[in-house]
């Protein structure tokens, strides 16, 4: 796993990206399978919506975010390949142990373990992508890597939809953990660590070998665009995590879908729509940013604005077919906002800051977003249940949608500062 020679061959780079994509897809399956199986888990363990929201959101998010920064600091100093191998083994083991949970506390502990393991992947992978691809190709490469999110979400739906009813939620978790362990061994045996910084412009190469976490955070805080798009994405994360966690249960309760019907529907729509959005967002970001770097923030603002009315339609529709059909649009435009932001972060920081910078970004959006979103909607659903009955979840989800409007405004404000911040980053 020693660094590969300078000028990594074109074909080898894409194979390595494909392997990172596969590991990330498994990461997302292990993260989101609980959303698909949340109703049977809730009924089996006799949980309230608030408790289920804690398990699906905060229990995972608190350790995912807090451990992400120190693990990323290791990725900026040591072998990212070894870190991903260790982290993948940990989250796969904890996924299997989730299937053996006997109650609320034991499942919370295993979800925390999954969060710790998964915290090390994306910062390390983004750092690797920065060393595998030139700046002009990174948007496309990040888009392909990030498309593992919708693909993993689709697989979680299909796996949960077919294995959940036939084998039960416990065996589904155990089998996923075992498959993850096998993939971990393959990654460890095959992946080649690229040398750092060889494909960067001279201005982006590090002046020294190591930057502390504090130095990286200060570097980000000096840039005005970060002061707007970090909180914007925290709001997006809050709404998005609530939607990802509770939409499966919403279809089962309000539209009386079976587990298999719901899982295959949500999984297919999320996978196709999300993949189009991720890859399309990367390609569009690369092309438009060559003419005007403000496009890194204009794309998220416009895409999110287009998604807002469609999300309202999903939860106000009177039948399952219309609700599911409307979900495709938000999956396309909503996921397209991720890639331009990550591509911008790659350009805003020095090479040896990348992993920590991505981890800080994930800390902000996941601690506030993934941590609070599912829990807040679960608590709202419990509070509204005496009035709305099984439709309480519908109105709890609708109540968080206006937060996206504030995020749109913040992205639009951030666009004014991208050019000057990129000048600062090259000083």
Automatic annotation (TrEMBL):
Compartment annotation: Membrane
Query: Which InterPro entries is this protein grouped with?
Result: MFS, MFS_dom, MFS_spinster-like, MFS_trans_sf
User: Per UniProt, what is one GO molecular function of this protein?
Assistant: transmembrane transporter activity
Membrane topology per record: Multi-pass membrane protein
Which residue range or ranges hold the Major facilitator superfamily (MFS) profile domain? Answer: 16-416
Please tell me one Gene Ontology term that the record gives under cellular component: membrane
Superkingdom: Bacteria
Q: Which Pfam family name is an example for this entry?
A: MFS_1
Keyword annotations for this protein?
Membrane, Transmembrane, Transmembrane helix, Transport
**Entries under SUPFAM superfamilies matching the protein:** MFS general substrate transporter
Instruction: Identify the stretch annotated as signal peptide in this record.
Output: none
Principal localization reads membrane
Q: Does the keyword Transmembrane helix apply?
A: yes
Annotated membrane-spanning segments are: 12-29, 50-71, 83-105, 142-163, 169-191, 228-247, 259-284, 296-318, 324-345, 357-380, 392-412
Q: Does the keyword Transcription regulation apply?
A: no
Would you tell me the protein name for this molecule? MFS transporter
Q: What is the native source organism of this protein? A: Elongatibacter sediminis
């Amino acid at each position: 796993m020693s660094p590969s020679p300078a000028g990594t061959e074109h074909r080898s780079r894409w194979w390595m990206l494909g392997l990172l994509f596969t590991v990330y897809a498994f990461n997302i399956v292990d993260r989101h399978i609980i959303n698909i199986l949340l109703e049977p888990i809730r009924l089996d363990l006799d949980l309230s919506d608030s408790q289920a929201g804690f398990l699906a959101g905060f229990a995972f998010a608190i350790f995912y975010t807090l451990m992400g920064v120190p693990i990323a600091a290791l990725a900026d100093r040591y072998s990212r390949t070894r870190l991903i191998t260790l982290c993948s083994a940990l989250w796969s083991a904890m996924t299997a142990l989730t299937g053996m949970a006997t109650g609320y506390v034991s499942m919370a502990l295993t979800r925390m373990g999954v969060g710790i393991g998964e915290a090390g992947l994306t910062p390390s992978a983004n750092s690797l992508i920065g060393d595998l691809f030139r700046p002009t190709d990174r948007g496309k490469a990040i888009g392909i890597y990030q498309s593992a999110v919708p693909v993993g979400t689709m697989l979680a739906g299909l796996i949960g939809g077919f294995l959940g009813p036939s084998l039960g939620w416990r065996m589904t978790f155990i089998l996923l953990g075992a498959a993850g362990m096998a993939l971990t061994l393959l990654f460890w045996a095959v992946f080649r660590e690229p040398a750092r910084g060889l494909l960067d412009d001279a201005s982006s190469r590090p002046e020294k070998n190591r930057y502390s976490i504090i130095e990286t955070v200060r570097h980000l805080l000096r840039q005005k665009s970060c002061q707007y798009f970090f909180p914007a994405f925290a709001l997006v994360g809050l709404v998005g995590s609530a939607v990802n966690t509770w939409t499966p249960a919403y279809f089962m309760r309000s539209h009386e879908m079976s587990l298999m019907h719901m899982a295959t529907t949500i999984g297919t729509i999320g996978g196709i729509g999300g993949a189009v959005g991720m890859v399309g967002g990367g390609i569009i970001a690369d092309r438009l940013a060559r003419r005007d770097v403000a496009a890194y923030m204009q794309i998220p603002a416009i895409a999110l604005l287009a998604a807002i009315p469609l999300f309202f339609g999903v939860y106000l529709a009177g039948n399952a077919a219309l609700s599911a059909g409307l979900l495709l649009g938000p999956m396309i435009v909503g996921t397209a906002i991720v890639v331009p932001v990550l591509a911008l972060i790659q350009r805003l920081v020095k090479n040896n800051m990348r992993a920590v910078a991505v981890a800080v970004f994930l800390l902000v959006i996941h601690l506030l977003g993934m941590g609070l979103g599912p829990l807040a909607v679960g608590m709202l659903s419990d509070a509204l249940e005496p009035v709305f009955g099984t439709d309480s979840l519908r109105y709890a989800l609708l109540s968080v949608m206006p937060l996206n409007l504030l995020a749109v405004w913040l992205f639009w404000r951030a666009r004014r500062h991208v050019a000057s911040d990129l000048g600062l980053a090259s000083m």
